Amino acid sequence: MKTSFITLILSLVALSYLSGCYYDNEEDLYGPPPPVPVCDTLQVSFANDIMPILNSAGCVGCHNSAGASGNVNLADYDNAMIPAKNGDLLSSIERDGNASFMPQGGQKLPENQIQLFRCWIDQGVLDN
Ligand code: HEC
User: Fold this and answer.
1) Fewer Cβ atoms within 10 Å of its own Cβ: the N or the C terminal residue of the chain?
2) Taking residues 3-16, what's their average pLDDT?
3) In b/e form, how buried is each residue of 78-111, taking b as 16+ CB within 10 angstroms?
4) How far, in Å, is the centroid of ligand 1 from the Cα of 69?
5) How high is the pLDDT of residue 91?
6) How far apart are CA 121 and CA 78, in angstroms?
7) pLDDT value at 15 more than 80
8) How far is the CA of 93 from the centre of ligand 1 (A)?
């Protein structure tokens, strides 16, 4: 009786020690989660976040009222909200295969910029 009690205590100590080690190893292996902001905590503005990317990524150069490649105009909110709402805008920059890869002839946008588009669309394609 006494022996089995001691065995039980020792097992519990061993178990907590082992699980502690396992936890440490897991952190070492996978590290902290990547810092991609979640849409709940990321308030996106069309004017301050989205429009500057459309300009700097060259989108507006090919998609404007003088030349709307693919019939897509991204020069202002009233036009950009159309492909934003029908899904083409996000598909084109995520390159998920449902739309042509954009920016055409350029590098895929960095993940943090794509996340801004996701959240802008997620939050209702606001003109803010
Ligand atoms: C060098 C010119 C050029 C640039 C830069 C460019 N596009 Fe395009 N885009 C096109 C052309 C041409 C088409 C139509 C032909 C096609 O679908 O490939 C198009 C099509 C699209 C479409 C419709 C896709 C479809 O499959 O119907 C979307 C949405 C789009 N572009 C968004 C963007 C966004 C967002 C950017 C910036 C990140 C961008 N484009 C940058 C030339 C460009």
Assistant:
1) N
2) 61
3) ebbbebbeeebbbbbbbeeeebeebbeeeeebee
4) 6
5) 98
6) 14
7) no
8) 9
